[in-house]
Design a protein that fits this description.
single chain; 10 strands
């Protein structure tokens, strides 16, 4: 397998010399093509800052981030826009759907921006909607959908351009337990069947147990890492809980 994502000695500081905060402290790791990796940590641990740097929402202070061999920390202007548009999919906690567009139009928007033919857009939207079981809401507006349906529409929008990497920021945070399970099973389908590479940030051990690998971050550093291997999801969940316990009370307010 090839590396889709490489984090190389990344550091991120906020503030100035009189009041300097190190949010990310010399983090390095890699994500291979087709992996489903979760980053866990308490609030303030640096996990969301790291995701923002990978998504180019924020810039690193030092170090490099490579996506499929391309150093995205050096991208500017049109090259940066192209990367965001073509290489990256992003799933937000609060869905970020456009209220004035139907589910179909929300999903199709990224392809429309790329000037894909309407017939091809229709084929691809219907194909991904079938896979995520949301064909019945394609003509509905966000206010007409449940939280789980909106999040699956957001997931469809994230993968419609066939990105090299899908980033998910606390995607189950606004969902009830049933909707969370349906979404996570959709992620497993995307990962197992479509070989979609997913990097998800969460503080939820249940959500993390769906991944193939979990990286734990504490105080801006990698604290531990575990792989699922041949474990059942329940056994992997138990191992995640063991590491959370090692972290002490840091995640207690988040779990």
């Amino acid at each position: 397998m090839s590396n889709i994502l490489k984090i190389d000695k990344v550091e991120k500081y906020y503030g100035n010399r009189s009041s300097l905060t190190k949010a990310i402290d010399n983090i390095s790791f890699e994500v291979e093509e087709g992996e489903f990796v979760v980053i866990m940590g308490a609030s303030g641990s640096g996990k969301t800052t790291l995701l923002n740097c990978i998504s180019t929402i924020d810039k690193v202070t030092s170090g490099h981030i490579y996506v499929n061999g391309e150093d995205i920390t050096k991208l500017k202007g049109n090259d940066l826009n192209r990367f965001r548009r073509e290489k990256l999919g992003f799933i937000f906690q609060d869905f970020n759907l456009l209220d004035t567009l139907t589910a179909y139009e929300n999903i199709a928007l990224a392809l429309s921006i790329q000037n894909v033919k309407p017939s091809e857009i229709e084929r691809r939207v219907n194909e991904v909607a079938t896979k995520l079981d949301i064909k019945n809401v394609l003509n509905k507006y966000p206010y007409q959908m449940s939280g789980g349906q909106k999040q699956r529409v957001a997931s469809a929008r994230a993968i419609i351009t066939d990105p090299e990497l899908v980033l998910a920021d606390e995607p189950t945070g606004a969902l009830d337990s049933k909707s969370s399970k349906m979404l996570l099973e959709s992620f497993n389908y995307l990962n197992d069947t479509l070989n979609t590479t997913i990097l998800m940030v969460t503080h939820d051990s249940f959500a993390a147990s769906y991944a193939s690998r979990v990286i734990f971050i504490k105080d801006g550093k990698v604290f531990n890492e575990i792989r699922r291997g041949n474990d059942s999801r329940k056994d992997f969940f138990d191992k995640i809980i063991d590491v959370v316990t090692l972290l002490g009370g840091d995640l207690n307010d988040a779990l």
